[in-house]
Amino acid sequence: MTKFTETSVAKIAPPPGSTDYIAWDDETPGFGIRFQNGAERGTFIVQYRIGTKQRRQSVGRVGKVTLEAAREAAKTYNAKVALKIDPAIERAKAVSKASTGIGAAVYPEKPGDPPKSLIDLFIDYLRDDQRRAPSYVKENKRSLERYFSHLHQFAPDDVDRETVATELRKIKKDHGPIAMNRSRSHLSKFFNWMIGEGKANHNPVLGTNKADENIRDLVLTPAELAKIWNACDGDEQSDKITRLLMLTAARRDQICKLCWSEVNFDEERIELPAKLGRTKNKAKFLLPLSRQALAILKAVDQREGNDFVFGEGEKGFSGHSNAKERIDAIMKERKIPVADWTFHDFRTAFMTHAQEKLKVPFYIADLLLSHTATEVRKGSKKNYNFAKYIDEKTEAMNKWGDYIEGITTAPTSRPKKKPNLRLVA
User: Fold this and answer.
1) What's the whole-model pTM score?
2) What integer is the mean pLDDT of 168-173?
């Protein structure tokens, strides 16, 4: 044994032929340098005994960690051992938390069961609570899996308030203030559950701002719809997507993730399978296409080996925020901005104007939004009425397409009549 110094550490080497050699420091108990398998450079280690178990822990490679830092780590380990705290267990827990995101499937409920993520376990917890309606469970699942997908990579205690606030602002921008507030509530409940399960130590949602839900009470006027439409007069994918969202009143992902296999040109409609999860009620959704919507889709080039209509990769179009910023910038440049609008507002505009101006029956407009709580599905009707109302939906979509075309087409300017001048003798 010898007292470690920067000079002596540089000279320490294992005996010739040794495959596992430890040199001990005579100043700090249990502190040494270990050489394994003929390595020229050793590793600082701490050896300690807790109860009946003896452990060794690495505190860094010689040369990458200074002698002073390694010795301080050794002293910290010894102090914890004196308090009957096992540093190895603490370290293992820290590594586990740091490397396991909330969306990672690593938590089997029982030995031999398939692994589940913390989100999966939380959703199971909600389902087991008989007080929770199935719709509430679905809303929580959608919020955590889709709206907060960026958080899946982080361990629970690595999610901070600023990160949550950033995600909430994105939800507000893309889906509106109501969706933001509901998602905020779902995330907060999820963190409270994790705290109760010992998987988290704090709730980063606490203290984040709520949105004013009254903002979205306003409906985009025909003039505002026309401004947004006419700002999308380029050849960008976002222009086609925005116009399709306006013409179809579809949810954003129903168009952004649309596949060619879901477009039935013969029947002139979009057919979304229930299994993909892009319909809120998880039922097959048939959405008729107006001639205006069909014209946009037919002008899009199909890419070999890629079923997605839009997007550059294999996951469809995902640049929603950038697309809206681009449209807003164009309208601002042309001095025709529309304040505080979202893609989801097209659905509200359709529901309102289709009934008020086009006299589309409420239940048809509601079915076109792929809702289930309509007057034709309530109560016992849901067990008997399975009509698709294709003809009525097609008529409504055609009316809406013509209406959008009418409000977005500039009126033809007529030449002014020349005054009838008479010569006075």
Assistant:
1) 0.53
2) 90
